[in-house]
Amino acid sequence: MAHTETPAQIARRLEKSRRWFDLIPPEGVPIRFEVAGLAGRFGAQLLDILITVVVMMAIIIVLAFLPFDIAPVVNSLAAILMLMIRAPYYILTELFWNGQTIGKRATGLRVLGADGRGLTTHAVVARNLMKEVEIFMPGTLLLVSGGLGLFWNLVLLLWIVVVLIVPLASKKRQRLGDLIANTYVMVRPKSVLLPDLSTSVSPNVFDFTPAQLEHYGRFELQTLESLLRTEAKTRGSDARRRDSLIQVAAQIRRKIGYEEPVPDSRVAEFLHAFYTAQRAFLEQKRIFGDVRDDKHHRDMDTG
Amino acid sequence: MSEVQPIRSTRFRAEREADWRALEVLIKRVESRGSHRLSFDESRALAELYRKAATSLSVARDISLDKNLLIYLESLVARAFLSVYAPQDSLSGVVGRFFGGSASAAVRRSGGVILMAFLALFLGSWVAASLFAQDPAWFYTFVPGELAGERGPGASTETLRAGLFSTEANLIGQLGVFAASLFSHNTRVALFSFALGVFACVPSLLLTIYNGLILGAFWGLYADRGLALELFGWLSIHGVTELSALALAAAGGFRLGLALLFPGSMTRKDSLRMASKDAVKLALIASLMLLVAGLLEGFARQLVTDTTLRILIGWGIGVLWLAWFLLARRRTG
């Protein structure tokens, strides 16, 4: 028998698949950051490599116009320029833009000191020197791997495998350089404050008894919040949204035993009122130590 | 009908929202233009508002179930933290500190391992030179073919002498020698002996000894032909710097390896992190020295063919390095 996930299970699974870490700053209030995904980091790296290569090519082209014949040394010249542009580029951008290279800016990532005291110069230098050993040396060797013997190709393979396994096995996606420098790469937070839903209620239209508010927990409340907040975002699918609001309202009324009929035109109002009452109820319970994470009265930690 | 009292978390938000908005404005300015553009009062306001927002977050986690508010506060405090604790260094400050004392202090702290690296280098050369004295065929065992080129026991003394005093007259040729030397054998050895130090020092030690072996084999060959002094001059002009760079890189690797082998009371991870502070500086110094050695090899060695002058320049620069390591101390107090 095929097991189908309920929407709630899907929502929980998605939330669990994101990786977080709590940073403890000197002020003592833990701050949550989301760990950057592999795709984002790969994209940032690619963009940075592209930028440095373009700069290197530009310099080579300028040099080509000088009255020298650079053709015989163009390969080693390119290699030197690459090294001399690349290492300072990463170190200086991360140092002066607070953990962001241009690639990281574009993909919305940034580097963060894990000890909660900001990035140090040492951390930035260490993680980027290790990047030479971890990424660029095997990368360069890979380009010439045809000319190496079997033994060195095996060494190269082992090297690449180790370098790849470390971040994949690390919970916080730290590569070797991050481990030594004690840094994390995380998603740059964005903050949008939307209006409080509980203030947009016309008072005393719908009343709920405490018994009616016993049914739901935090998870259901916040799911309802997300549903109510979608209204501000999309106007096009208005009819569909109205339908789902009506369905949800009917489901809630059935569950809590709300007898009074609610006309379709006032469904949004009913849901707002229920949201406010439910939130006030749950927050009150919470202050007295009764934490209800969902309708099964799970605690935060279990489940 | 009387106004209903808004719920507790709504009141909480209403009381503090103005502060959050003010903080957001300040953060946006820091994020786009950097914290040094803020005035004194604004910086102070930033720190104060950050602490207020952190308190709000801590309270909101306990009393509010408004998901959007919680996410907003989390990200606001995160951004504020990043703005407040942004690195404050300037480029001149970073470079000045490195050359003015922090690099030389790392060298002084690593005296023991640097000695170890030099000893390994010397041991290798001594072994190879004495083996070569018994049987010149050892040369081929130690020196890889592409490094030896036409230099070898089979070459005539005249070829060997010409190799020591060959010059590249034009600038591009010198640049080519410079470039080639930078990506030469020694740079690779330096990089590997640093990076592989993590594996309990063994690869670094072997590499350093091996490099000594190559050196010793050449020494034996040239000494055999009565070109010892000429080779010494040829090596000195860039080798004093280059071999020291090699030893420093290996020493950096040793620091990492020793930190892993003997972590003391720390965890191995912490011990490695502590050691990396000096090791990274050693690696930076080594790469700087390799760059200088490349310049000396590419230009100075081509221009100066007098053996005495070569020795003087090479060891003179060596003394300068030593002076930097011993004398550059950060002023305290």
Automatic annotation (TrEMBL), chain A:
Chief localisation class: membrane
Keywords attached to this Swiss-Prot or TrEMBL record, sorted alphabetically, are: Membrane, Transmembrane, Transmembrane helix
Q: Name one GO cellular component term.
A: membrane
InterPro entries membership? RDD
Task: List residues traversing the bilayer.
Answer: 42-66, 73-91, 150-169
Q: Indicate the segments forming the RDD domain, all copies.
A: 35-182
Intracellular or extracellular location(s)? Membrane
Q: Does the keyword Transmembrane helix apply?
A: yes
What membrane topology does the UniProt entry give?
Answer: Multi-pass membrane protein
Family annotation (PANTHER family): SLR0254 PROTEIN
Name the UniProt record assigns to this protein: Putative RDD family membrane protein YckC
Organism annotation: Maricaulis maris
TrEMBL record, chain B:
**Key words, A-Z:** Membrane, Transmembrane, Transmembrane helix
Q: Which Pfam families match?
A: SpoIIM
Segments passing through the bilayer: 113-133, 162-183, 190-223, 243-262, 282-303, 309-327
Whether NAD counts among this entry's keywords is: no
**PANTHER family (UniProt xref):** SLR1478 PROTEIN (PTHR35337:SF1)
Protein name (database record): Putative membrane protein SpoIIM required for sporulation
